[in-house]
Design a protein that fits this description.
The chain has 252 residues and is an alpha+beta fold. The chain has two domains: 13-88, no CATH class; 101-252, no CATH class. The protein has five helices and 17 strands. The strands form four sheets. It has a five-stranded antiparallel beta sheet with strand order 4-1-6-7-9, with helices on one face. Strands 10-17-16-12-13 form a five-stranded mixed beta sheet. The protein has a four-stranded antiparallel beta sheet with strand order 3-2-5-8. Helix 3 (206-218) packs across helix 4 (224-238). The radius of gyration is 21 Å and the shape is globular.
C-alpha cells in the first residue's frame, strides 16, 4: 500500500473542473460551478449523496471530493472542508493512437471499457468512424434497444458514409442505465438483427466539456504529455470512455 501525505496551505487556490449534483459554498450559500476558485479552508455543502466535485491545484494536481465520503453534520448537512476531504485523483488511462491504416472502430471493443465499467461518453452530432466490416446503408444499420418504465424502446442510429452519429432523438424518453447496441444486416435479401454489445450511455454538453478542459489546461503548465493525460483521466473519471481523436478535438 502506498501512503500519500498531503499538506494544505491556507490561501492555496483550487480551481473547480467538474461538479455533479448540487454543491454550494457554505460562506456564500451560492452553488459552485466550473471555473470557481476555492481555498483550502472553504467548507462545501453537498445536497445529495451522489454529488461530487473535482478541482485542480496548479502545484499539486487533480483532486476530488465525493459526498459519499462525508459525514452528516449535527443539522444533517453533508459538509466537507476542502483541506480535510480532498482526495488526489491518481487514475491513469493509456489510449492507443490511431494507426495510419485506421479505417474505423470495431463497435464490439469500442463500446466496452472495464476501466469505466462500460460507461461510454457519446459526443452528440459527431461522426464516430465504424469499421467497414459493418456495412452501413439503408438496409444495413445500427440501432439501440433499452427498457424504460417497463417498455422496450428501439431506435435507429443516424449514420453517414463514415460512421454513426448519436443524436438527442435516441433518448427522448430519458437516458437509460443500459442500452444494447444492435446491428441489422441484409442477408440473402432478408433482414437479420443481432446484438453487438451492451453499454451505459453518457451524454455531456460539448461546451461544458470544453470549459472544463480549458480550466484544466490553464492550470497544468506547458507539459503536453501531462496535459493530455490529465484531460483523458478527467473525462474517463467523470464521464466515461472516449476515443483519443475525440479527446484531441475537444482540446483544440
Amino acid at each position: 500500500m502506498i501512503s500519500i501525505s498531503l499538506s494544505f496551505v491556507d490561501g492555496e487556490k483550487y480551481y473547480v473542473t467538474f461538479v455533479k449534483g448540487s454543491v454550494t459554498l457554505k460562506k456564500t450559500g451560492k452553488p459552485i460551478k466550473v471555473g470557481d476558485i476555492l481555498q483550502s479552508t472553504d467548507a462545501l455543502i453537498f445536497k445529495e449523496q451522489t454529488a461530487k466535485l473535482s478541482c485542480i491545484s496548479p502545484g499539486k494536481g487533480r483532486f476530488e471530493i465525493n459526498a459519499q465520503k462525508t459525514k452528516p453534520s449535527s443539522n444533517g448537512e453533508l459538509l466537507a472542508v476542502l483541506k480535510n476531504n480532498l482526495v488526489p485523483s491518481t487514475s491513469t488511462y493509456h489510449l492507443s493512437s490511431r494507426s495510419l491504416m485506421f479505417d474505423g472502430y470495431d463497435p464490439k471493443t469500442y463500446f466496452q471499457s472495464t476501466e469505466t465499467d462500460n460507461r461510454i461518453l457519446l459526443l452528440l452530432d459527431e461522426v464516430l468512424p465504424i469499421s467497414p466490416t459493418y456495412k452501413i446503408d439503408e438496409n444495413n444499420f445500427f440501432f439501440i434497444q433499452y427498457v424504460t418504465s417497463g417498455k422496450t424502446i428501439t431506435k435507429k442510429i443516424d449514420q453517414s458514409d463514415k460512421g454513426l452519429v448519436f443524436t438527442t432523438k435516441l433518448f427522448t424518453e430519458g437516458i437509460p442505465q443500459k442500452v444494447m447496441l444492435c446491428y441489422q444486416a441484409q442477408i440473402a435479401g432478408k433482414p437479420k438483427s443481432s446484438s453487438v454489445v451492451e453499454f451505459t450511455p453518457i451524454i455531456a454538453n460539448k461546451a461544458d466539456l470544453k470549459n472544463e478542459i480549458k480550466v484544466l489546461t490553464t492550470n497544468l503548465g506547458l507539459n503536453k504529455k501531462l496535459i493530455a493525460a490529465a484531460v483523458t483521466a478527467h473525462i474517463f473519471d467523470n464521464y466515461g470512455k472516449l476515443s483519443q481523436d475525440q479527446i484531441d478535438k475537444l482540446m483544440l
